[in-house]
Amino acid sequence: MHDVVLSELRRHGPVLPVVLLVALLALPVPAEDPAAGGGTGTVADAVSALVVAHCLVRLVRERRRPLTRTAAVLLGLPVVGITVAAFGASTAATGVAGAARYLQIFVLVPAAVLMLVRDAAHFRLLAWSFVGLGLYQGVIGVHQNLTGTGASYMGEDIRAVGTFGSTDVMGMATVVSYGLVCALALAFRPGAPRQRTAAVVCAGLLTVPLALSFSRGAWIATAAACAAVLLLAGVRRAGQVLLAAGAAAVVLVAGLGVGSAMLQERLSSITQVTDTPDQSVTDRYTMWAASADMWRGHPVTGVGLKGFPEHRDGHASLALSSGSDTAGAGSGFVRQPLLSPHNMYLLVLSEQGLLGLTTLVGGWAALVVCAVRRWRRQRPRRGRPGGAHLDCALVACGLLVWQLIDFMYADIGGPSTVLLAIALGLAAWWAVGARVRPGEAGPR
Length: 444
Description:
The chain has 17 helices and four strands. By secondary structure, the protein is mainly alpha-helical. Residues 33-39 and 435-444 have low confidence and may be disordered.
C-alpha cells in the first residue's frame, strides 16, 4: 500500500503544487480594506508565484522544450498590450502593479499549468480538484443559506458566499460554476462508469449552491457552458445526463421552501433589468458607458492600467451611486467603492485600448478555435461513443465558454481569480499542447 501511494505521488508530482493552489482557495479569506481595491494579494497569489518557480526549476532540470510555437504565441501575445498600457499608467508603481497582476493571471500561471500537465491523468486530477473545491464551498454556502449566516440579500443574510465573505459575493459562484462544468464534462469519460456516476451526482449537487449564490451572471454563463458541453458530447448520450441532473436539481431546489420564491424572482429579473433596473444594474450600465467613453478618448492604448477608478467620475453620468452596500457572512456593513465596470472586455478596452483588447481577447478566441479543432478528433460518431479523451476536450471547451460569457458581467478581482488562471492553463494544454496520437495516454 505504501509503495502504491508513493508511486501515485511520483506519477502526479508535477501537478501536485497546482492541486495545492486550488486547495488553498478553501481557506477563509481575510477582510480587506475596500479602498485598497483588492490589491494587497492573498496566500493563493503567493503560492501561484511558487508554482511558476516550480515549473521553471523542472524545465531547467529536464532540459526540454517548454512550449509549442502556437502556445508561445497565444500566451505571449497579451504581453504586448499589457506592457504598452503599463507605460500609460498614472504612476510607475501603478503600472508595475497592474502589469504584474495581468501577467500573473493571463500569462505566467496558465503557461506554468500547461507545462506541468503532462497527460490526461494530470488533467483529470486538476479537473476533479475543481469539483472538490466547488463541493466544499457549496456545502458552506448552503449552510449559510439555511442558517441565515450568509451575505445580505433583500434584507436577509441568506446569500451563499462560502468562505469568500460578503465583499466577494462572486467568489463562491465562480468556484461552484467551474466545478459544475468540470463535473458535467467528466461524466462523459468513455470506459469509466464509476467516474461517470460520481460526476453526474456532483454536477447535480452543485446546482444547489449555484442557485443560492443569486448570481445572475454565473447562472447565464453556466447554462451556456453546460449547453456547449452537452452539444459537443453528442445529443443521445447527453440527454441522459441532462435528465439526471435536471431531476436532481428540481428535487433539491424544491425542498428549499421560501428560497425557491426568491430564486424565481431572481430568475425573472434577468429579463426585466432593462425595464425597471435596480441601483446595482443602473450602476453597471453607467460604468459600461463610462468605459466606452474612456476608450473613445484613448482608442489605441487606453487610459493605462488601473486607470478606470481615476477616470471614472470624469466620464460617468450622475446616475452612478457612490458605491455598493455589503453586509453579513461574518462582516459588518461595508460601503464598497465601484472600482471597475464589471465587464472584462470593457475594462480592457478602457485601460488598454484596441491594442490590449485585440491581443488579449484574440488569444482567447484562438484557444477556443484550437480546442474545438482537437475536440473533433474525440467527438462521438455513429457507432462510436467518443475518443478516450472526450472528457478532457469537454472540460477545456466548457471552461472557455463559461469564462468568455462570464466576462460580460464580471472582471478579474478577488482570490478566485487565481482559479481562472489555472482554468486557462488547462484549456491551453488541450488546445495547443502536444497532439494526442493513437495508443498514447494523452498529450505529452
